[in-house]
């Protein structure tokens, strides 16, 4: 079919040029005219005048897949090697490469691309085309670039079986593996859509995946969000339209008080797709997973890659970002504390500020409101303070924390992390008050409207109620499973259990989402401290806050009674019944309790098990693990370790989320290690801990933060929502006006 186009020079085929060509073809080749007219209309609904451009390494199957896609769309198929380069040069590609050499070949190849134009076609690039910037920019102007991402080991096997012994760049001392690795940077630069292609996947299946990916790319309506309190029709009682990713990142909380969730659920990965990520780095895994969760209309793949690299490239002390370490027996630790503020919150809060800055309109200032039980505060302050200076002028953050409800080191850290656009405010109450107050402020339309009109400033949230906070957490749960495969502990498909110290339920929800996306997690184990409302709920279905008072414990990050993200989970197992969710959480707010009906409790108990840990058992676990392994657990990880010991059946590996570095809780750790006299100075406590030469070593970022002089002070306010609102208005006046 393509040969029709060879009767005239290849050029951009607009509707006018198509009409002129068709007139000539009608006179000379009526059959050809019928074919091209039918071709144009049948493919126009999907790609219109755009081209589908297939890109990937040699051996990725671009030519074969391109032919199948072209047949399915009934549109022209163009292979750059066969139909453009060899026709232009009047010799084979290998002959040209041998004649002119590697560097000149790339230039000649690029020149040929610059002279080439087509429309409404499927085009298969050569493996080296993406290395010529001007040529690729020209191609991209009228095309959707689809990257056929095939694991390097698979490509090498295919090229060996095809007896390919010459590709662009291959020379003495340069291996094929090196070339394939080098080229990846160019593929990542240009693609609009990535299609994962496993080892034995048939070309027909890849072609269907290409078409599905193009349909998603063309239709952003496929990636919309609804409130957990919306009706079954998908319409919220307060909102008349769906939201997109960029909307939910900036808005945070739905106007009806619910939380945003994807209307069509999370994407599913096949076993082959997951297996293709076993050899990938953490940032590569993050890129692939987040591309599926964020529509390119919200954040293009190239920009997303840039954001991920900024977030995880240099800000983490461990090159593996989230390493998995064997502890003992069938227990493994997922170390989530190698970020700049020493907790798992860094995974989201090094990324989210950049997502937020990209998504918000340039016509408005934004103040981010955060409530923290400890770790979120310093993480969000650090993350937003790393924005570009121009973004810091229009984006600021205020962190509300319980003044007497965090560890001394956590408080020092939050005060130290204050910058010109980031502040901490202590509240004379507990975390639940801080979180509830922020929700009330967001749903106070009079106040938010006043801020917008008077100061041109909108409010947004960075707590785990913000959907964007959950996505990076999905990544590290999936990555942990893939790391166990890479280490030879399990093979893909083997089950694992996961145990997580749980307060606001966000980390646990992310693990459950990873399971829904195809990671073979068997049991999700929720570990509570003495604030064990979640444990009681999972065991009985009764969420009852009546008569409960928050207890200050050695694990303050899970000193929470109202678990916000539980609402998202209940919405999921209730078949997205927003009316039921609204009823349950209104009852919790007004009466202090609700009871889950029997069928939903049955569903919940298929997914979750729970236990809790006393203060004494927490300290005993820290001492026991250090005595037997030389490894120091933080207090939250110790809670999870105690619960895992009680609830695991030892028939499969169990991954315990180590959510914070022990340095943040030095007084409790020193007490667990049975140190008699503890200096109250946080820096002295860290120096004492460092003398133990334990694993892991003292956290570099935390130590540097506490060494800083002139950390300044922070504001403290009463537990009154109106007082918090006054603080917010004052901060807006001082920063934005």
Q: How large a portion of the residues is in β-strands, by DSSP E?
A: 5-15%
CATH topology of the domain at 320-339 and 487-708: Rossmann fold
| Helical proportion, percent range | 40-55%
Question: What is the CATH level 1 assignment of the domain at 320-339 and 487-708?
Answer: Alpha Beta
Major pleated sheet: 6 strands, mixed
Radius of gyration: 28 Å
Total count of strands:
20
- What's the architecture of the domain at 320-339 and 487-708 in CATH terms? 3-Layer(aba) Sandwich
GO molecular function, one term: pyridoxal phosphate binding
Protein name: THNS1 protein
Pathway: Amino-acid biosynthesis
GO biological process, one term: amino acid biosynthetic process
Q: Can you characterise this structure?
A:
A 6-stranded mixed sheet has the order 8-9-19-14-15-18, with helices on both faces. Mean pLDDT is 89; it is low at 1-44 and 236-240. Among the domains are: 51-218, Rossmann fold; 320-339 and 487-708, Rossmann fold, CATH 3.40.50. It is 49% helix and 13% strand. With 737 residues, it is an alpha/beta fold. Keywords: Amino-acid biosynthesis, Pyridoxal phosphate.
Can you lay out the helices and strands and say which pair or pack?
Layout: H1 15-28, H2 30-47, E1 51-55, H3 62-73, E2 77-79, H4 80-89, H5 93-100, H6 102-114, E3 122-124, H7 133-140, E4 143-149, H8 152-161, H9 176-190, E5 193-196, H10 203-218, E6 225-227, H11 245-251, E7 260-262, H12 271-275, H13 282-293, H14 301-312, E8 324-328, E9 331-335, H15 345-349, H16 352-359, E10 365-371, H17 375-385, H18 389-392, E11 395-402, H19 408-416, E12 422-427, H20 431-442, H21 445-455, E13 457-461, H22 467-486, E14 496-501, H23 506-516, E15 521-528, H24 533-540, E16 542-544, H25 566-573, H26 578-591, E17 593-595, H27 598-607, E18 608-612, H28 615-629, H29 635-647, E19 654-658, H30 666-672, H31 682-690, H32 700-707, E20 715-717, H33 721-736
Parallel strand pairs: 1-3, 1-4, 2-3, 4-5, 9-19, 10-11, 10-13, 11-12, 12-20, 14-15, 14-19, 15-18
Antiparallel strand pairs: 6-7, 8-9, 16-17
Pfam family, one: SKI
Protein name: THNS1 protein
GO molecular function, one term: pyridoxal phosphate binding
């Amino acid at each position: 079919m393509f040969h029709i186009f060879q009767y005239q020079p290849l050029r951009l085929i607009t509707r006018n040029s198509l009409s002129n060509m068709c007139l000539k073809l009608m006179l000379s080749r009526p059959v050809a005219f019928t074919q091209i007219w039918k071709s144009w209309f049948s493919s126009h609904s999907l790609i219109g005048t755009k081209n589908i451009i297939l890109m990937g390494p040699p051996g990725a199957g671009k030519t074969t897949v391109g032919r199948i896609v072209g047949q399915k769309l009934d549109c022209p198929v163009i292979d750059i090697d066969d139909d453009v380069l060899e026709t232009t040069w009047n010799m084979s590609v290998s002959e040209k490469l041998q004649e002119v050499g590697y560097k000149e070949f790339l230039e000649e190849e690029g020149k040929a691309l610059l002279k080439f134009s087509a429309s409404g076609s499927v085009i298969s690039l050569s493996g080296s085309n993406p290395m010529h910037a001007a040529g690729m920019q020209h191609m991209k102007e009228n095309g959707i670039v689809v990257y056929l991402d095939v694991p390097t080991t698979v490509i090498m096997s295919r090229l060996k079986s095809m007896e390919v012994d010459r590709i662009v760049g291959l020379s003495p001392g340069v291996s094929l593996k090196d070339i394939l690795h080098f080229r990846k940077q160019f593929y990542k630069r240009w693609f609009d859509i990535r299609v994962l292609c496993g080892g034995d996947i048939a070309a027909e299946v890849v072609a269907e995946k290409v078409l599905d990916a193009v349909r998603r790319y063309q239709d952003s309506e496929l990636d919309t969000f609804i409130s957990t309190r919306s009706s079954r029709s998908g319409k919220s009682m307060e909102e008349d339209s769906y939201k997109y990713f960029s909307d939910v990142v900036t808005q945070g909380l739905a106007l009806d008080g619910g939380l945003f969730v994807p209307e069509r659920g999370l994407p599913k990965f096949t076993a082959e797709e997951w297996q293709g990520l076993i050899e990938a780095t953490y940032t590569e895994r993050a890129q692939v997973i987040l591309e599926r969760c964020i529509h390119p209309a919200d954040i293009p793949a190239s920009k997303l890659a840039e954001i991920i690299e900024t977030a995880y490239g240099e800000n983490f002390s461990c090159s593996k970002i989230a390493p998995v370490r064997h502890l003992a027996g069938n227990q493994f630790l997922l170390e989530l504390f190698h970020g700049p503020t020493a907790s798992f919150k860094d995974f989201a809060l090094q990324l989210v500020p950049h997502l937020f800055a990209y998504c918000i309109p340039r016509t408005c200032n934004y103040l981010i409101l955060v409530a923290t039980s400890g770790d979120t505060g310093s993480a969000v302050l650090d993350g937003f303070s790393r924005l570009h200076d121009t973004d810091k002028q229009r984006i600021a953050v205020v962190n509300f924390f319980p003044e007497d409800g965090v560890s001394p080191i956590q408080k020092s850290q939050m005060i130290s992390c204050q910058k010109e656009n980031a502040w901490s405010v202590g509240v004379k109450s507990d975390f639940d008050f801080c979180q509830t107050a922020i929700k009330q402020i967001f749903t106070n339309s009079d106040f938010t409207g006043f801020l917008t009109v008077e100061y041109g400033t909108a409010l947004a949230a960075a707590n785990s109620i913000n959907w964007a906070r959950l996505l990076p957490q999905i990544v590290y749960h999936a990555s942990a499973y893939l790391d166990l495969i890479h280490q030879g502990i399990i093979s893909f498909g083997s089950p694992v259990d996961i145990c997580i110290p749980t307060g606001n339920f966000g980390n646990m929800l992310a693990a459950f989402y990873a399971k829904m996306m195809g990671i073979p997690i068997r049991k999700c184990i929720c570990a509570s401290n003495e604030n064990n409302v979640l444990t009681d709920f999972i065991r009985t279905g009764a969420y009852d806050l009546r008569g409960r008072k928050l207890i200050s414990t050695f694990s303050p990050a899970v000193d929470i009674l109202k678990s916000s993200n539980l609402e998202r989970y209940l919405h999921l197992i209730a078949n997205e019944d927003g009316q039921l969710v609204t009823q349950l959480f209104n009852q919790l707010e007004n009466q202090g309790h609700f009871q889950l009906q029997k069928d939903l409790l049955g569903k919940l108990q298929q997914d979750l098990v729970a236990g809790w840990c006393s203060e004494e058992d927490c300290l005993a676990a820290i001492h026991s693990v250090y005595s037997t392994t030389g490894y120091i657990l933080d207090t939250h990880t110790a809670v999870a370790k105690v619960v895992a010991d009680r609830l695991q059946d030892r028939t499969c590996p169990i991954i315990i989320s180590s959510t914070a570095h022990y340095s943040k809780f030095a007084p409790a750790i020193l007490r667990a290690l049975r140190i008699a006299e503890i200096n109250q100075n946080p820096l002295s406590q860290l120096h004492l801990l460092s003398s133990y030469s334990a694993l892991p070593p003292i956290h570099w970022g935390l130590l540097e933060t506490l060494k800083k002089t002139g950390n300044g002070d922070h504001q403290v306010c009463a537990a009154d929502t109106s007082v918090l609102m006054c603080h917010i208005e004052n901060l807006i006046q001082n920063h934005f006006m």
